[in-house]
Write a structure and sequence with these properties.
133 residues, mainly alpha, 2 strands, 53% helix
């Protein structure tokens, strides 16, 4: 007998059941992939929002730095130390504090504003004169 005649006709209901099973399997895998994609999207949005929040609140650090600088200046003024970034006079003296690392001339030198310089030496970070060796 020829091969075409040997095949039994496939029942239409059996064929539809096979296709339904195949579609159900595809549907399950699609649901899993959709849930995974949704979770990853939520994570990406959350990380982006956290990064945005951190970048916006980082700018508020400058306010805290300004407050600390103001407090340091107030403490230096209370202690009688001139701030490093200003040329104000130290309380109780008539002259300006020289900058750090400035070599001073001999004792008795008078500046144009009428102040007399301390002995020869170099100033340190506090404005005090370190004697020359």
């Amino acid at each position: 007998m020829p091969a075409a005649q040997q095949r039994q006709p496939i029942d239409l209901a059996t064929r539809l059941d096979g296709q339904r099973g195949w579609l159900a399997q595809i549907d399950r895998s699609l649901k899993k992939r959709s849930i995974i994609a949704l979770v990853l999207t939520c994570l990406a949005v959350g990380v982006g929002a956290a990064a945005l929040y951190i970048s916006l609140t980082k700018n508020s650090d400058s306010d805290r730095i300004d407050a600390l600088q103001t407090r340091i200046d107030a403490l230096e003024a209370a202690a009688g130390i001139a701030p490093a970034d200003s040329t104000e006079t130290v309380p109780g003296t008539d002259s300006l504090t020289p900058e750090t690392g400035v070599t001073l001339p001999e004792t008795g030198a008078t500046l144009p504003d009428g102040t007399t310089l301390p002995p020869t030496g170099t100033t340190d970070s506090s404005g005090l004169v370190v004697p020359a060796e």
